From TrEMBL:
The lineage of its organism: Bacteria, Pseudomonadati, Pseudomonadota, Alphaproteobacteria, Sphingomonadales. It comes from the Bacteria. Gene3D superfamilies: FAD/NAD(P)-binding domain (3.50.50.60). Pfam families: Trp_halogenase. Signal peptide: none annotated. This is Tryptophan 7-halogenase. SUPFAM superfamilies: FAD/NAD(P)-binding domain.
Amino acid sequence: MTAAGLASLVPGAACVHLVESADIGIVGVGEATLPHLRAFITRLGIDERAFMAATHATFKLGIEFHDFGRVGDSYIHPFGTYGRSLGDIGFHHFWLRRHQAGAVTAIGDYSVGVVAAQERRFAHPGPDPDDLATGYGYAYQFDATRFAPFLRAHAEARGATRTEGRVDGVERDPASGDVRAIVMADGERIEGDLFIDCSGFRALLIGDAMDETWEDWSHWLPCDRAVAAPCASPPGPIEPFTRATAMAAGWRWRIPLRHRVGNGYVYATDHLSDGAATDALVEAMESPPLAEPRLLRFRAGRRRRSWVGNVLAIGLASGFLEPLESTSIYLVQMAITQLIEHFPDRTLTAADRDGFNALVDAEYDRIRDFLILHYHATTRSDSSFWNHVRTMTIPDSLAEKMALWRRTGHVSRYAHGLFLEPSWIAVYLGQGIVPAGWDPRADLPDAAALDRALAALRRGIADAVSGLPDHGAYLAGMGVAA
Ligand SMILES: Cc1cc2nc3c(=O)[nH]c(=O)nc-3n(C[C@H](O)[C@H](O)[C@H](O)COP(=O)(O)OP(=O)(O)OC[C@H]3O[C@@H](n4cnc5c(N)ncnc54)[C@H](O)[C@@H]3O)c2cc1C
């Protein structure tokens, strides 16, 4: 993504040299994405249909969560909004008022994205934001092992050179500490002005060479391992959503692609052994694994700074947050965008680095808090893992957000970072945190008139969704079905 982004977007400002090793390969399990990826693909001039065909992609309207707040609960976190705001009063305040009176159904019934996901329907949203049938966003579920070579070809076609082989050493300037060259296993030296460390969990430059401090967040996000295995796609509709199901010591993903279903169990080794996790995953899968289950080790956290000297880390080299909300590929994309905005000349100023690092920090912190919420907002007490996350001390930044919501129904706003109001509302309400109050201005409309308006909105959404095609049929119509 980084090589393709730089070669496409700042072709005159940099000569891009991509170094990667087919022997080492990529981590290859990033299959669920966020709507931002569409902007990335579009900016790179990539045709959506070609990208979807190459990566066996399906559309994604959100994530369906099961058993998080309480065993038996489920909700969808959609890419899109709920209902319609009235002026600057969010729709959910009106919904909360009538919910307290028992006069409304689940808030998901007022979201096109949720209802379309439930009915397995999909079409590209139209351009009119006021049209009920267009109030949703979408992302992709794809085969990550096909995305990397697809982008590599894109980067090379735009002038990036590529060296295949293993990096074996790093030469640093003794005075400044900057990296001068990387040394390949066959002895080749590759010099550069700016080195972008995309070496994944190995963190060859930011970790091994620059020794940048790792900020550990595993006390808040204790899952440190995943076991992953694909299985065959079942007959019938293809779900336009990713599913996350809470398990005894973590959670399990299910990601429907065109040619197979991706599955994985993300768990905490303090609470479950690898063998037990593998057995639990295989038992929960809808059909036998198509490949030997694969173990992946990680730790939640990030480098204190992602850009140090002339080394800038992107992707897993800069940090890791578990894929509960499909955020890692977004973080890669965000870092590329910020790098381009702070793109240095040969002088590499501290201001560029500080600006970049501050924005990356904010993004990581917001996502971290949002992920912790999924664990902490629970009444589950059926395993040592859930007892731990339910009772652990959470970051002050999250505690403040939750307190504000509980009291007023308002979602804390921030200038930088992922997850806007509807996302927080989805998880708060989906996991049973119903606020005591709401915006007092939501009390102004007459109750009967408000109920009529809410019912009309719900009917309008149901009608709009019933006009959308089946997701699988839509993919077939695009010429990208299996
Ligand atoms: C269990 C799990 C599930 C995930 N699910 C999702 C998801 O659903 N959605 C999402 O957005 N993200 C997800 N992610 C994260 C996602 O996989 C990564 O963000 C994404 O793949 C980018 O990884 P990367 O490029 O940083 O590292 P890698 O994919 O590990 O790539 C590292 C690259 O560095 C090269 N390299 C390493 N060492 C050397 C060396 N010595 N010499 C030469 N080359 C070298 C490798 O060849 C490779 O090309 C998941 C991660 C895990 C662990």
